[in-house]
């Protein structure tokens, strides 16, 4: 739904003939329409940065690219309004847009040999091998008996993606990942996997993988493939991006590799990656190839297992649990020095000696990595224990937060203010939001400058001044001011005839403590007898109200928008919550993202609209005179309740 109705009232015919080309008016109209789109896009990205919304990074890239296009068009319309004055604006836009693209774009990974290598070399090629293979190699180096094998490094995955031109295709699919709901991600997962499985492995890489498979199997049997995904430069694999496929015949190794690495595209894996803040293209998959052994038993040990039924001496440190694929009940062992067996299954092929050996190996792994481990194990036909894989458990990974913070600084931070004329220049802009605010301010300024006393029904632009530090430039379209305002450049609230404006002013202009030069407000208002569009700007915050207050209730409405720019993320989120709670209590329907909120009230008789506008005025003034609106330790809903009760 359109926020502003100003162009239904401020029409082309309103301007004096010969003073304005239709192209100039249309440019302003399109500029204001694009401003709405840009504010919403900025606030959505801000919402993601605040952690209020979780999306795939491909969506952020797409939003930033679309935002850049819309702002460029917006600035082109500003240039159309005054080509000479704004001739250099695109130079500053290009610079900021470049920084935005640098901040949000994840570079394609570099691809280099070796593509396959022995497990013991995974420490030397840690970032190719991935965390799971590197950790297994460290266990082997520390003397832990490990099932040996080969590693198909992450560069095979990257090579496959590039060779089949899948990078853009996958990103385009992931652009629709705007939620972490498993049902929605399952659709995305199936689409990506179907597309991925159609890819063909380059012959040279396929040959190298087949040779690695033959070396691992030693020509004697099948293989086991363990795939995982580790973000580039990270020491931790992503949670939920791990799977094992077995048995795999040597001749099927390439197709099995393709199937194994698609674990990174499962709905659960996509969600875990998104919540960790990583992009898909920086989270390649690697695979460990191991020979299939004739085993006596196999299973997993959790070196730290939650259990409520423990002896008193073990409740502080907890226990370890050894699960066997051949038994439904685990061994529970003390985590104290002697690792005493607390409980055991009634029947199990796993001997007490093997259980204690597995527990000792698990303890060694935990000490090596300084975090509880989940280790998969096998016992061969001679009851020898070997570890086949290990990972931290519960998962303790790293979350990528630097990229979104850097992106927000170039997209959503406000660095300029119209109150500071020395800083309110295009060359002082440092973000996309700076450019949007600049275009809005200068676009309105250009239009108001066209108004003269010779206008059709317009008595020039006037300045509303009051005791409070509030200064508003007023454009009277039709019967918005009393006749006492005729011929005056400076007017007072007593000159206002516009029903919605004086109702808003009843709250906005009321006597209250807290006003000073630092929180002064400036703005523009377009008025008629029953219509008002007012834009108010403080040092950082932007407020707009569009309202009709008419005896005909069907045409009445109030549209309110607030876009903040000051305070920490926590303060800004709390302020939006305060505004939303206040307006919802008055019957408004609200929608908010990031540091922006829009509220709408439709219909209502004239007295009701006037009362709501007065409340809105009080709200705007309260925000202007209280910083922060919600103090640390306060609850936004409770602060709103106190404010509402004070309205009377």
From TrEMBL:
It catalyses: pyruvate + ATP + H2O = phosphoenolpyruvate + AMP + phosphate + 2 H(+). Keywords: ATP-binding, Kinase, Magnesium, Metal-binding, Nucleotide-binding, Pyruvate, Transferase. The keyword Transit peptide does not apply. Residues 129-308 form the Pyruvate phosphate dikinase AMP/ATP-binding domain. InterPro entries: ATP_grasp_subdomain_1, PEP_synth, PPDK_AMP/ATP-bd. GO terms for biological process: gluconeogenesis. SUPFAM superfamilies: Glutathione synthetase ATP-binding domain-like. One of its GO terms (molecular function) is pyruvate, water dikinase activity. The keyword Metal-binding applies. Catalyzes the phosphorylation of pyruvate to phosphoenolpyruvate. PANTHER family: PHOSPHOENOLPYRUVATE SYNTHASE. Belongs to the PEP-utilizing enzyme family. This is Phosphoenolpyruvate synthase. It comes from Maridesulfovibrio salexigens (strain ATCC 14822 / DSM 2638 / NCIMB 8403 / VKM B-1763) (Desulfovibrio salexigens).
């Amino acid at each position: 739904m359109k926020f502003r109705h100003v162009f239904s009232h401020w029409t082309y015919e309103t301007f004096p003939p010969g003073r304005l080309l239709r192209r100039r008016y249309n440019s302003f109209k399109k500029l204001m329409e694009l401003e709405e789109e840009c504010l919403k896009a900025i606030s959505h990205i801000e919402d993601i940065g605040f952690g209020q919304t979780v999306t795939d990074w491909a969506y952020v890239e797409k939003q930033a690219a679309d935002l850049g296009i819309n702002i460029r068009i917006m600035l082109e319309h500003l240039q159309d309004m005054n080509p000479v004055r704004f001739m250099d604006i695109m130079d500053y836009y290009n610079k900021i847009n470049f920084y935005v693209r640098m901040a949000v774009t994840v570079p394609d990974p570099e691809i280099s040999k070796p593509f396959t290598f022995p497990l013991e070399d995974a420490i030397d090629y840690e970032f190719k091998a991935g965390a799971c293979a590197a950790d297994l190699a460290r266990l082997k180096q520390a003397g832990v008996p490990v099932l040996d094998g080969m590693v198909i490094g992450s560069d095979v995955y990257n090579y496959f993606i590039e060779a089949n031109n899948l990078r853009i295709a996958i990103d385009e699919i992931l652009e629709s990942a705007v939620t972490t709901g498993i049902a929605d991600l399952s659709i995305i997962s199936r689409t990506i996997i179907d597309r991925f499985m159609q890819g063909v492995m380059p012959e040279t890489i396929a040959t190298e993988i087949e040779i690695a498979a033959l070396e691992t199997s030693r020509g004697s049997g099948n293989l086991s493939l363990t795939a995982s995904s580790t973000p580039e430069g990270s020491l931790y694999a992503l949670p939920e991006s791990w799977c094992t496929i077995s048995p795999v015949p040597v001749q099927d190794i390439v197709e099995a590799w393709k199937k194994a690495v698609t674990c990174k595209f499962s709905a659960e894996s996509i969600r875990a990656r998104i919540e960790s803040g990583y992009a898909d293209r920086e989270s390649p998959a690697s695979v460990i190839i191991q020979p299939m052994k004739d085993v006596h038993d196999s299973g997993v040990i959790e070196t730290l297992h939650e259990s409520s039924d423990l002896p008193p001496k073990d409740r502080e440190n907890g226990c370890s649990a050894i699960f066997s694929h051949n038994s439904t009940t685990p061994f529970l062992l003390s985590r104290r020095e002697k690792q005493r067996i607390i409980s055991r299954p009634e029947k199990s092929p796993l001997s007490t000696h093997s259980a204690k050996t597995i527990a000792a190996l698990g303890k060694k792994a935990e000490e090596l990595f300084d975090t509880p481990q989940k280790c998969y194990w096998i016992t061969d036909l001679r009851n020898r224990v070997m570890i086949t894989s290990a990972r931290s458990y519960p998962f303790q990974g790293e979350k990528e937060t630097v990229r979104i913070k850097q992106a927000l600084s170039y997209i959503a931070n406000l660095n300029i203010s119209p109150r500071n004329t020395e800083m309110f220049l295009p060359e002082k802009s440092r973000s996309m939001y700076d450019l949007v605010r600049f275009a809005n301010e200068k676009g309105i300024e250009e239009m108001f400058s066209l108004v003269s006393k010779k206008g059709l029904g317009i008595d020039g632009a006037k300045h509303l001044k009051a005791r409070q530090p509030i200064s508003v430039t007023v454009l009277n379209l039709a019967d918005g001011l009393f006749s006492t305002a005729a011929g005056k450049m400076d007017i007072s609230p007593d000159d206002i005839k516009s029903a919605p404006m004086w109702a808003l002013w009843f709250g906005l202009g009321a006597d209250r403590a807290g006003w000073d030069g630092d929180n002064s407000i400036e703005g523009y208002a377009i008025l008629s007898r029953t219509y008002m569009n007012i834009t108010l700007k403080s040092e950082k915050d932007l407020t707009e109200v569009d309202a009709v207050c008419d005896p005909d209730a069907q045409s009445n409405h109030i549209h309110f928008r607030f876009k903040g720019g000051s305070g920490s993320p926590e303060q800004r989120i709390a302020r939006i919550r305060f505004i939303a709670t206040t307006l919802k209590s008055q019957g408004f329907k609200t929608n908010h993202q990031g540091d922006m909120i829009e509220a709408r009230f439709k219909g209502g008789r004239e007295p009701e609209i006037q009362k709501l506008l007065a409340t809105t005025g009080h709200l705007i003034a309260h925000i202007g005179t209280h910083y922060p609106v919600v103090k640390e330790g306060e609850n936004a809903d409770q602060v709103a309740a106190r404010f509402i009760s004070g309205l009377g």
